[in-house]
Automatic annotation (TrEMBL):
It comes from Streptomyces graminearus. It comes from the Bacteria. PANTHER family: DJ-1 PROTEIN, DJ-1_THIJ_PFPI FAMILY PROTEIN. Belongs to the peptidase C56 family. Residues 4-179 form the DJ-1/PfpI domain. This is DJ-1/PfpI family protein. Gene3D superfamilies: 3.40.50.880. InterPro entries: C56_PfpI-like, Class_I_gatase-like, DJ-1/PfpI.
Length: 188
């Protein structure tokens, strides 16, 4: 049976930041499950940059079914974790079931990939202190408040934690995450 990777997300996650790792990791030979607060059809969004706006815009994106709820997740069944961005992390960081899942992955030093606003989740469980990370640039103060050293670059790898700024950094993010996976959690 192939190794399994968990993606944790919810409504208003950035479409590309869920679908790209989902497809790329399956292409690599991993089974990938998507977990959310409940089993339902999730509604993702598209964040884009348009002239005249001081920040990104948000439009409706893809829909996709969650494979399981956070309460159903057994972290021991997975070799790695992916945390997409978008607006979902803003409210997911308060979910006690998700906090247990995140803590289990970090306690076991399993590979974790986070992107964009995803680091709000890892900051919420105090796992960034003393680590090097990147995130969506507007989160620099949040990362510093969490005790992390923020680097405004495509991808930062700190041990088994691989972070990226946003979907334009996907190639670098997944390339570095797959290196970590091959070393720590190969497909077979």
């Amino acid at each position: 049976m192939p190794a399994k990777i968990l993606i944790v997300t919810g409504d208003a996650a950035e479409s590309l930041e869920v679908m790209y790792p989902y497809q790329r990791l399956r292409e690599e030979g991993y089974d990938v499950d998507i977990a959310a607060p409940s089993r339902k059809t999730l509604r993702f969004v598209v964040h884009d940059f348009e002239p005249g706006y001081d920040t990104y815009t948000e439009k409706p994106g893809y829909t996709w079914p969650a494979d399981l709820s956070f309460a159903e997740v057994d972290p021991g069944a997975y070799v790695a974790l992916v945390i997409p961005g978008g607006r979902a992390p803003e409210y997911l960081r308060n979910d006690p079931e998700l906090r247990k899942i995140l803590k289990a992955f970090f306690d076991a030093d399993k590979p974790v990939a986070q992107i964009c606003h995803g680091p709000l989740l890892t900051a919420a469980i105090d796992t960034l202190r003393g680590r090097r990370v990147t995130a969506y640039p507007a989160l620099e103060p949040d990362m510093q408040a969490a005790g992390a050293s923020f680097q405004d670059t495509e991808t930062v790898t700190d041990g088994t934690l691989v972070s990226a700024r946003a979907w334009p950094d996907h190639p670098s993010w997944m390339r570095e995450f797959i290196k970590v996976l091959r070393a720590k959690a190969p497909v077979n």
